Task: inverse folding
């Protein structure tokens, strides 16, 4: 077992080093390990911010490197502090006592150092077990066998040995990682194993704002990334794709993604499994909508039953040309966007005037499927009935259907 081999190497090294250095240096090292382990996470977060400020953008590297650097730095400080103390004691027994007391001291010093070395080795082993268990929890779930990098295969092997030897219990006993981090890892692994869930992910209401960002638009349009995901290529390969790096190397965006997923985690899991969102389904206006020319013509004829057929033909041709690309997105933060829509303020009502534009505004829930839209200074009433969204604007009704 690799874990037992690792344990033998660590303990043998620290025992030998403790015997050679003596009790004082080994004792300082032990306290350095304890203090470093306690301060690694809180100070590591601060150091992670510094690493980000100096140009390190990879969030996984920053997350892992900060605590490790803090632990190493504190251990070095304690080892440096041990040197003058050891020297003073050594000088005392060498020059101010007799040969017998000096010999007894040296023997005691080395034997105590050996015993403290056992403590150091045990502490190091516990920390190593913890450092193996945390990342291997994620990498094991997204393993691709021999296609994975060597470091990942080794990490997964160590993670398996932790479970088979029972050492995983040791890691859990000192684990201070929040449960939400493990839940996130489970969610990422589930999405990786189910590439067909992409359609549902993009349609989840809480992600509507994110999906409008250029980074996600680039990822969605990256056919190479999509095909690689569907082929279940290694995670390391997917993360190296240029379109994914645009998201991975944007700390502010990653923080926004994390916060959004964390706030909606349970509801998102339900949505992935059932296609239903208990949290957002009651808000009927949420989602992406496309303009429905036929439904708009029917609504116009219903509102103006005496309109001449020739006029209706002209109106249909106009709508087919002017509203062909019109899309509406209503987000949970009460923001609404209508893209590629003609000007809504038309002289004399009826036919809108102006070129295509993008309207930004807010929506307000009035209850009973009725909403009030505020777009570019206009107050427009809207109604959602089943899978139909109608917006009354300047004597006509704009009709939208859910975008599939």
Result:
């Amino acid at each position: 077992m690799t874990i037992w081999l690792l344990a033998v190497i660590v303990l043998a090294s620290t025992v030998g080093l403790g015997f050679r250095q003596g009790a004082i240096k080994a004792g300082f090292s032990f306290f350095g390990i304890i203090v470093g382990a306690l301060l690694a996470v809180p100070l590591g977060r601060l150091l992670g911010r510094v690493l980000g400020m100096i140009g390190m953008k990879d969030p996984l590297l920053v997350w892992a490197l900060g605590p490790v650097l803090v632990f190493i730095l504190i251990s070095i400080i304690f080892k440096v502090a041990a040197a003058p103390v050891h020297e003073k004691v050594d000088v005392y027994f060498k020059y101010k006592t007799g040969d017998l007391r000096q010999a007894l001291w040296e023997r005691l010093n080395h034997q105590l150092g050996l015993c403290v070395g056992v403590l150091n080795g045990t502490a190091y082993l516990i920390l190593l077990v913890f450092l193996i268990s945390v990342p291997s929890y994620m990498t094991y779930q997204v393993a691709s066998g021999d296609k994975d990098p060597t470091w990942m295969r080794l990490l997964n092997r160590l993670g398996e040995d932790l479970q088979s030897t029972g050492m995983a219990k040791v890691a859990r006993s000192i684990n201070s990682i929040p449960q939400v981090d493990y839940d996130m890892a489970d969610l990422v692994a589930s999405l990786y194993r189910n590439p067909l869930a992409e359609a549902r992910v993009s349609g989840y209401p809480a992600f509507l704002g994110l999906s409008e960002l250029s980074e996600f638009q680039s990822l969605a349009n990256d056919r190479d990334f999509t095909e690689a995901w569907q082929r279940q290529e290694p995670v390391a390969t997917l993360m190296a794709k240029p379109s994914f790096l645009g998201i991975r190397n944007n700390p502010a965006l990653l923080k926004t993604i994390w916060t959004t997923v964390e706030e909606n985690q349970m509801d998102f899991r339900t949505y992935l499994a059932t296609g239903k969102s208990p949290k957002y389904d009651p808000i009927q206006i949420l989602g992406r909508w496309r303009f429905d020319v036929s439904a708009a013509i029917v609504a116009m004829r219903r509102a103006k039953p005496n309109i001449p057929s020739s006029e209706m033909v002209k109106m249909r041709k106009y709508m087919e040309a002017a509203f062909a690309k019109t899309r509406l997105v209503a987000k949970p933060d009460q923001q609404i966007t209508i893209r590629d829509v003609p000007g809504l303020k038309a002289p004399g009502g009826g036919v809108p005037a102006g070129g295509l534009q993008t309207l930004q505004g807010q929506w307000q829930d009035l209850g009973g499927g009725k909403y009030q839209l505020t777009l570019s200074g206009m107050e427009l009433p809207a109604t959602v009935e089943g899978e139909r969204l109608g917006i009354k604007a300047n004597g006509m009704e704009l009709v939208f259907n859910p975008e599939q």
Summary: The first helix runs from residue 2 to 21.
